[in-house]
Amino acid sequence: MEDKKQETRNRRVVVKIGSSSLQHPETGDMNLIKMEHLARELCDLRNQGMDVCLVSSGAIATGRKTIGLTERPKNISVKQACAAVGQAKLMMIYQKMFAEYNQMVGQVLMTKNTMINNVSRKNAQNTFEELFHLGVIPIVNENDTISTYEMCFGDNDTLSAIVASLVGADLLILLSDIDGLFTDDPHKNKDAKLVRVVEKLDNQILHMAKGSTGSDVGTGGMATKLTAAHIATLSGADMVIANGEDVGIIHKIFEDDYVGTLFRANKNEDFYIADYIEESIG
Ligand SMILES: Nc1ncnc2c1ncn2[C@@H]1O[C@H](COP(=O)(O)OP(=O)(O)O)[C@@H](O)[C@H]1O
Ligand SMILES: N[C@@H](CCC(=O)OP(=O)(O)O)C(=O)O
Q1: Stretch 20-28: mean pLDDT, rounded?
Q2: 218 CB less than 6 Å from ligand 2?
Q3: What is the pTM of this model?
Q4: Is 218 known to sit in a ligand binding site?
């Protein structure tokens, strides 16, 4: 009961969806029904009076499919070309789907420099504030077409937590291909158990994340989700990892009727996101 009260107080929410959740695994083509459902869920959060931000991966995977590459691109310029094509297509589809509900969306593409440079960071923050004020849902991704190793966050789990920190979100939801954090990788250990609530990110929790992503299109994995949890909770946001197979889980999270892992906010007034990026991701 106490948890439910806590969660319905959330006013500003960031939702992240990964590449593998946006496409049909058999064909690599976009899962339009899921994207449509995602748009409806997020519009309904707006209707409840919340500020909503979507961090969507999928630019490279969408571009790769559109261009007709069968192999996952390794070469950086090929990835950048795929992202250029895919990001435009992703936004076109999102615009169309959100427009069904008369909901405006805007594109925000970021690099590490956006966060490290004081002027750019302030500009980004002002833009987000103005978009929320105007009732727009910002759709964020890494600026993959110009990001090389030195400039990129590398994964959208971390990026979504950085965005949550930048906008002072109350809640970050990571929609994954798995129900949440398990005591071990459940694809390798069938005895692994779901962890329902993490009060504090200690070494025991950090050691649970194994390997990198298992998907053919993503770049994250559980380790980057724990990095995201570290950033989000120290910034004062709760974070939930839940399965994005059915994006209807989004409203269930607010009804406290979901399976997933909740990482409780643990705000540290001395935590500065720009310093953290320079020290830890720089
Ligand atoms: N302790 C763990 N608990 C849950 N999943 C884990 C764990 N360790 C590793 N993983 C792996 O992380 C994957 C989820 O991350 P990822 O591949 O980035 O998917 P997504 O982009 O859909 O979030 C799981 O499918 C799982 O194989
Ligand atoms: N920015 C990249 C995706 C990066 C990423 O973290 O992907 P994912 O592991 O699918 O969330 C893209 O849009 O293709």
Answers
A1: 92
A2: yes
A3: 0.94
A4: no
